[in-house]
Amino acid sequence: MMLFKVLLCFTLMLVCYNVEGFYADNGMEDYIGDLKDNAVLDEELAEATDTLRASSEEVIYNATAANIWYRNRHGANSERFICTVGPQIRKICGFKYPFNIRITEKGRVYVTEYGTNYIHILNLAGTHIKKFAVPKGHPTGVFTRGNIVYVTNTADEVYKYTLNGEYLEAKYLKGAVPISIALDYDDLMYVCKWHSRNIQVFHRDGTASHVISYSGMRPRILHFDESDNLYVSDHYKKVLYVFNKYGKFLRKVSVPSKLTDGFAMDRAGNIFVPDRTKNAGKLFILNNAGKVLKTIGGMVGASDVAIAPDGTVWVVDFEGGCLLHY
């Protein structure tokens, strides 16, 4: 009798567990789903990053893809960078040697047109909004910060405009032929001087701060990473130079492009480098160590690239006179 009672008790316990377990499992599925969308996602992304950097898969990490989804779910200060660079969305032509591109956080696209004196403004749908002109010379570099657009030109000047293209002021840099411009996170202004083969740094009030140079460097386009380190493309040497903001040389990153102008970086450390070699234009996507993750062809000779807030990639085909949107 005692054995029977024990067996009965054990059987009832199993039945109760299974009944409770059934409902508990339903709740647990939802709970695990929430965890996967939150904490476990970090582990999955870390694993995906390791896999990616050990291979040449088409999935790449860039500065803004999936950020909108992730920020909405996890807060404005959260970032995730996974994205697939897909097929070409559109091709916008009719430019005469478009050169440099910048895209604002609100999705305004600014493109300098070296073959004229215009800077063009487009939206992310590729619709042309307006254009404005530099007073003289040809526009080269463009940079946006806040409500200001900075433009360099071939007449040794740096211009400031509003986001709508209204002229504010100009700074003359004798003999500089400034080819590009960037601001660091302290709003110091860095101007790439093509003929002088260096980068001149200015304080907010316009006074000179210091000069950054490196033996044999032919600097072209400037970008800062998340640590405020300055990356500089070399037009001929298939390399990016990395300096700290004070000009101390840190390292070089080898790139496969034969003729390099612009490039872009994402917050995961990957680098997008177009090749301007005529009739051999490509876009290379590399990790921060210089390993090629993907190559995209179909360009005549590309001079610059930018990553938009919606995660899409814009390539400036200088030789082809077009913008390519992926």
Automatic annotation (TrEMBL):
Alphabetized Gene3D superfamilies for the sequence: TolB, C-terminal domain (2.120.10.30)
Keywords associated with the record: Signal
Residues in the signal sequence: 1-21
Lineage: superkingdom: Eukaryota
GO molecular-function terms, A-Z: ubiquitin protein ligase activity; zinc ion binding
GO BP terms: proteasome-mediated ubiquitin-dependent protein catabolic process; protein polyubiquitination
Coiled-coil ranges (or none): none
The UniProt record lists the keyword Signal: yes
Cited InterPro entries: 6-blade_b-propeller_TolB-like (IPR011042), TRIM-NHL_E3_ligases (IPR050952)
Protein name listed in UniProt: SMP-30/Gluconolactonase/LRE-like region domain-containing protein
Origin species: Amphimedon queenslandica (Sponge)
Organism placement in taxonomy: Eukaryota, Metazoa, Porifera, Demospongiae, Heteroscleromorpha
